[in-house]
Write a structure and sequence with these properties.
51% helix; 6 strands
């Protein structure tokens, strides 16, 4: 490691000064061990460059999926504030940026609002919406401003054989950079040859140039692994770098070992999160918790016992109830206003429920019952609910017609949103015929 570090910093310095028209550097920062070491070696190299030659902008980009482990979020928030403050004080061309998914793409709007089933390996809808798209938009914005950009990542060949093969495959022969999937973007991995044991040795011996220590980061890894974090001196010594920090709602894995480790090491306030995450995992495979019809661009397909659609309104409401109860319990016990779901997401969920003709229960009612408040939805949202009440009053003698009218309106509304009204008449007639069949079968909800 003592031989590698001066070489890595010299290489970074050379690469930084190479361009006549400096392409901006975008450093992907997650707060984990790899991205922390990457940022540290870049920072140290930058400090050795005369101030008048630091002409290349460096953007430290941290993507927040809004469902990250709260323990990690708290740590990263403090780190990002310290990074920006120290960069300014030291006169470095470093700025810190946080990316988040669009409101319509957030985990809760999709899972609770639209009823999307929890992600699986074959249907991992969360990765693109929560992680790839937000950061891609930021990178494309910088490329449009500068023509090209270089993305610095903390990927290391030692992490996995597949990662090593991928890094080798995309290398540009004779150059430090490799191609990125985005046009006019290149990837630079300065610590690609650092082994995990060397990384931890460096982190525990060298303090971050932005201030503080790495003790909290090391402790997080140790606790999440439910074991200690020894000084790695050879390949036979287990490293504390195997823990995978990420979204606390992740259902792609059967168990969230990092959260289990943190809870086992004293963070028992996260137990409600574990309970909700496990319920989401179980209900994904519960046939009674899923609709027998799927969402489509126009409306719903015919009922089919073999079709697994979105979560039922009842289950979506249960998820929201457990989420808000967990949020309040954490806020009460931790003495802060940590948000698991934003108010904007709550409004978006209610709008989505209205569009799906789900009017009971209301999001505000669930929130008010848990928080003992009188929160009201925005006027345009309440107007939709009032329209539904009037519709039910008008159909008091034949309440089953409420469902029919709502479904017909949904058909028309979605056709309008698609700007394609061709075939609307046929769709309405077909849906009316389907409604009559369901009424005969007794499956129409009054």
């Amino acid at each position: 490691m003592s031989l590698k570090l001066p070489f890595i910093e010299a290489e970074i310095t050379d690469q930084y000064l190479y361009d006549e028209n400096p392409r901006p550097w975008i450093i992907g920062f997650s707060g984990g061990k790899d991205s922390t070491m990457l940022l540290q070696v870049v920072w140290r190299a930058l400090m050795k460059i005369p101030a008048e030659l630091r002409k290349r902008d460096i953007y430290v980009v941290c993507n927040d999926t809004l469902v990250e482990n709260p323990k990690i979020v708290s740590f990263i928030n403090r780190t990002l504030k310290l990074l920006q403050k120290s960069a300014t004080q030291q006169g470095l061309p470093i700025s810190v940026h946080r990316t988040t998914p669009r409101l319509e793409d957030t985990f809760w709007v999709n899972l609770i609002g639209k009823g999307y089933p929890a992600p699986t390996n074959s249907f991992r809808w969360c990765t693109e919406r929560l992680k790839i798209n937000p950061t891609t938009r930021f990178i494309q914005e910088k490329i449009s401003e500068a023509g090209e950009a270089i993305i610095l990542l903390g990927t290391r060949s030692d992490e996995s054989q597949s990662r090593a093969r991928s890094m080798k495959r995309h290398e540009l022969k004779g150059q430090r950079l490799r191609k990125h999937i985005l046009p006019n973007a290149f990837v630079y991995a300065p610590i690609r040859d650092i082994e995990t044991g060397e990384l931890w040795q460096y982190m525990m011996q060298v303090s971050p140039p932005w201030g503080g220590t790495h003790k909290e980061l090391v402790t997080l890894y140790r606790n999440a692994n439910s074991g200690d974090c020894p000084l790695v001196i050879d390949e036979t010594t287990p490293s504390c770098g195997n823990s995978r920090f990420g979204c606390w709602v992740c259902t792609v894995v059967s168990r969230d070992k990092s959260m289990e480790g943190l809870i086992g090491n004293g963070d028992d306030w996260m137990e409600p999160l574990m309970e909700l995450r496990n319920k989401i995992l179980v209900e994904r495979s519960n046939r009674d918790s899923r609709e027998k019809r799927r969402r489509t661009e126009s409306a719903y397909k015919e009922d089919d016992d073999n079709t697994w659609g979105p979560y039922t309104p009842k289950i979506r409401a249960e998820f929201l109830t457990m989420l808000l109860e967990a949020q309040k319990e954490i806020q009460d016990s931790q003495g802060d206003m940590m948000e698991l779901i934003t108010h904007q997401e709550l409004v978006a969920i209610q709008l989505t429920w209205f569009r799906d003709s789900v009017f009971t229960p209301k999001v505000a009612d669930i929130y008010n019952r848990i928080y003992n408040t009188n929160l009201a939805m925005p006027r345009h949202v309440e107007k939709l609910y009032r329209e539904e009440e009037l519709l039910r009053e008008a159909c008091a003698d034949q309440p089953e017609h409420v469902e029919l009218i709502q479904e017909m309106l949904l058909l028309q509304r979605n056709r309008t949103l698609l700007r394609n009204k061709r075939g609307l008449q046929q769709d309405l007639e077909k849906h009316l015929e389907s409604f009559l069949v369901r009424r005969i079968k007794g499956t129409v909800h009054a």
